[in-house]
Structures
1.
Amino acid sequence: MRKRIVFWIKKQVRLAKAKGVVLGLSGGLDSCVTAALAKEALGAKNVLGLLLPCHSQKQDSQDARLFARKFKIKTKVVDISGVYDNLIKVLPSADRMTQANLRPRLRMIVLYYFARKYGYLVCGTSNKSELMAGYFTKFGDGASDILPIGDLLKTQVRKLARELKIPQAIIDKAPTAGLWPGQTDEKEMGIIYPELDDILARIEGGRKQFLPAAKVSRVKQLVRRSEHKRCKPAVYKI
């Protein structure tokens, strides 16, 4: 799997006649695995990891730097906290999630800025579990040019991380989108990844479910409700 993904990254960059890739380096498992694969495919000099804090936890930046040092990946830091604050000031008040969704969308603006500047592709870091369950921000972290781990469930990404020798602290940390202090993926979705992945794999394979019916129903609902996120905009045909 590792070799196939690395070959695929090389091919996509070559077909686009791009010079390399840029990605958001959050210090989380998915971004680190994606960056490691990109480095293996393109060489360190053709991979740029952007640290894009937005009132983020210090530990996330520390983990991102730990990874970048170990894998010798180039990084740049662009703190978008001030931009976010100014935007919140001019927008009407809204609930916490509405405001939080601004963060990944602002990060994507910066990623595409650097991609254009250097002639790179934006390399997304979403995994299959997130994509199927709709656990991503449309036109935020859901936007990219290529998605190397987009067909790997979270449990598969974790196995690949061990093979790539990603720092253990990053492998073990609770997955989070960093939307607010204490926020985690599993709390937000109401299910742990091993259970989510088992249900998703059985849905996709048309196999019998063994987990409680309530959990299966919840996951199916997540998949249905997020269908619009995985589709291109609907276009009226004349």
2.
Amino acid sequence: MSARPRIALVGVGSMGSLHARVIAQHPDCDLAVVIDPREEIGTAVAEKFETTWRAELGDVSDVDAVVVAAATEAHHGIALDVLAQGKPLLIEKPVCASLAQTEEVLAAAEKAGLPIMCGLLERYNPAVMTALGLIDEPVHVAATRHSPYAPRIKTGVAWDLLVHDVDIALQCFRGAEPTSVASGIGQFHPSSVPGAEDVVDAVLRFSSGVATVSASRIAQRKIRTLAVYELERLIEVDLISRTVTIYRNVTQDAFTPDGRGYRQQSIIEIPELVTAREPLATQLDRFLDILAGRVDADAERRSILPSHRVVAAVMA
């Protein structure tokens, strides 16, 4: 491993271009090469961040690690190739387009003793990180992730969107997996690929509570919210504005003193965020820590599969 890890980036579309910027600007690593079959797009990104471009993965012996931000349907082949060449891997979510392929890739990483990390980016949202540090005993977790339609995304919302909130819900319940899963699924948009769902609502039941997660790509505005209900308080998170608000109910009166109606009083707290750092940069920090051995690579690998397993159960 180089003193400053040299990183290859596969895929420089909308998400890959963000990875390119964050890797190129990071003080502790170098963007060694960008790889994309589209020459015009690939060379433009390479020139912008003063690196080189090539059309195919090929030999990656000259780099220390690989970040994959290609289309989901290409993940399986690219990941297995990277691991076969003995390189650590950060791969965008989902790891692969099916649970079976994801299990194959994770098993290959484990067998080769190579670090692998999945781009479950909301883990590094400052508001989510703050909320997770505050949670005590949740009984109900409610997450909503709705977006306007994006024709470029061919994957259904379960793997594209829902996986994030399933992952957060599992963390809220201290890593426990649900005892049962129920879901409602719908495909409505005429431009969606057959079998690629537009809406998923799921209920995950845990031994100590329940989570409701909703994903949609036919909304007219972007919504990213999380609510964690405990018996004595509510923790609300806006993942877009990156704010956390805590509510504690202190009074409930059937009528106001003049007899006109119901009155309820709550204490509102706004905690300071644990960090203001961009989530993608925080995620890269962790990947570099994994490469350097400062983070347990086996534990990181084991943290990937549960959310993927639950999404597969939702779709089943």
3.
Amino acid sequence: MARNCRKDRSKALAGSWDKNAGNWARAVRDGLIPSRRAGTDEAIVNAILAHKPARLLDVGCGEGWLIRRVAQSIDCQALSIDGSAALIADARQADPRHAYRVFAYADLIEDAKSLGTGFDAIVFNYAILDEDAARLLTSVEPLLAPEGRIFIQTLHPRALDGPYRDGWRTEDFAAFAGPGWEPMPWYFRTVESWHETLRDAGLVLLDLTEPMADGRPLSLLMTCKSLKR
């Protein structure tokens, strides 16, 4: 029963991206998400630029803003993937220069190497919201270059209301501007649980930062490498 419930939530999570695609693109491009304006966009971009990747993979790219922003500062070979065909269509329309591919997380777990290898940076920017995160991260580890890094930015557990324990929650987007949002299930993790997830995926945490605004944490930003390299 629990396994079927997890699958149902994972399916609903994946489906929500297509249902909310138009609202997501508008919210990102019009600067309607307060935490992004306050510093999370800048934090992930600066972390990537400091590593100076020649090859970059953006996993769960949404409408593609991150690659466009990084490309303003460095010239790198970039590939962006997302399970939502609608969001990938938005990304391609906004940026004909870079490669955007419809590629779901299930595809990534099944056949990650079809994306290529030797990536200097693999980025998950608010893109790990499912329960089976360790399996997802394990699937991309072989794609890293010898000095490659995985960058993960996610919701800060201490910035959210509710019990401080792992479990599924629902985002209703009430804080976002505009109507028509479809509620989205997502999986909450404690800081300890994130450490366990990275360990189970064969990753070493090199750096953990907490972008702040007005004395409050906005996100967790983790930089990792492979334990094997």
4.
Amino acid sequence: MPTSSLILGGVKSGKSGYAEKLASSSSGPVCVIATAMAGDAEMADRIKHHQLNRNPAWRVLEIPLELGSAVSTVPGETCLIVDCLTLWLTNLLVADDEALFNAQRERFLSAVRFRQGPLILVSNETNMGIVPLGKLSRRYCDEVGLLHQELATLSDEVVLMVAGLPHHLKTAPPLPDKSDPVN
């Protein structure tokens, strides 16, 4: 399993399932940081669906805003899934506090840079269509695109999920073979 993976895709593309499959292959404990907030009954149902389908042995933290701090507190031997970055960005943008947005974004990126241990980031790829109407919608698309670019640079692996199929955009280099006398 790569040290860090960025899993992108559209709604219901299989992102979370793929991330959970990756985490299941890790040898240590697993922690999920969920960023969603139930603003209405339908979203509450979506959250409940994820909860029911997740491995009950996994630790779950519900962190809608202070993601960087949460990532920093999870021990390195724990495989960490963060699901979902676009919901986290939405939470920050609707808070309508530029200082909060900038501080939380930088704390998160710093936590990712310094994470010692398996990290799986899940996010919606939303920028494959037309430029949306409305200042907030355009800002959201801009921020998602910029965040994905930074995280793709920091990640060992980047996967785009389409119709439940993983498309590897960036693949982690193979680990050295310890039995090879050249290494």
